[in-house]
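Issue 218. Parser rejects a valid record. Input:
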Amino acid sequence: MSSYRSADPTRTYYVYNAAWSFLAALSFTLNLVYYVREAGLDPLQMVLVGTALELSCFLFEVPTGIVADLYSRRLSIVIGFVLIGAGLLLQGLVPAFLAILVAQVLWGVGYTFTSGADQAWITDEIGAERAGRVFVRTQQLGLAAGIAGTVTAGGLGLISLPLPMVISGAGTMLLGLLLAVFMREQNFHRTPREERETFRQMAETLKHGLGVARRRPVVRTLVVISLIAGLSSEAFDRLWSVKLLTFSFPTVFGTSDPAFWFTLLALAGTVLSLGASLLLNRFSAERLQAVHPTGILATLAALDVLGMFLFAFAGNLWLALAALWLRQIADTLTSPIHSGWLNRHVDSRSRATVLSMVSQANAIGQVVGGPPLGALGRTSLRGALLASGLIWLPIPALYLRLRGGPPALTKSAPAGGSPLTNTDRTEVDGD
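Output the parser choked on:
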């Protein structure tokens, strides 16, 4: 079989990432509609599905990483895609709560096998110098393939809602098997013991991160922001589809099928977010590069919560759509501003710790906050959506508290009083 593994690594990386972007869009464009219409999930069950996925990713990140570190990046990626495909296939074939719950666990565990392993593989094969350009090109190809997958999902969904998921699941498993045959791995070296991610290392990172947060109020504030966002977003990101499906969709091109409309909504949201990003870069670039872009981050967070409240109270389809698009635009614009802020100001010694703390705080928030709001949604869907918005409400004020301070953390700064001026908002928006 080794004779088949002669494909160029860069080309392999492009092809399989584009294929996965297409298959992911194929499955996830209409999955929330499927959960409500075909599987009959109620608000609590919708949220528990997301909680199962989040918890699986959180718990299995370390043990599955051992495969990529010790045995093979390729093996880890292959196992991951086979498990993800099995999960997608299961939930498409069996429209029942327990089956979908098991499918989310399979999906989550499979994701942890691929997480980081693919980038580590391509970096090993082509070198760190070339990898940066490859990652940029991969993102472009992935966006194009994702749009194609969204359109295809809409077409297939008009025939049958489960069909896109079934095809995506089978295709993802096939992709994993093809990678087992064609994926070349010539430069793999076992990760040294001291560099491996372990539960002990995770605990030490958490302990160190808590120490940083105690000494530096800015870090503490950003961890709190991430925790609040996680508490709020898990329920909202699952329940908006439930409310949207209570409206009657107008007939366009001879159909009012939700599959058509959810596909249109996904495409429109992407285009609007892209347009807003281009306009902001053109007319307000100085705000994006500000030493402390807390003002614009607070504004975007305020627009986010405004979108939540408008959606919760919306009594017609078009107001609900406008609210959803407002929130999507705010989320899309926030991410690169926060990332740029991080790269300009956080001392490299603290970056990994701060990122880990923020990510863990968000995951904990989603797991803790999702089920209670989902249970509330069983009796009052509007109440659950409003509660999500109320939980999010302090975030703009917390951003404004981060104004001021020196532009960077220096090595000579005293440990007790150093104002760390930034961190990343990784996965703050949940799903």
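Fixed in the parser; the record now loads. Residues 404-431 have pLDDT under 50 and may be disordered.
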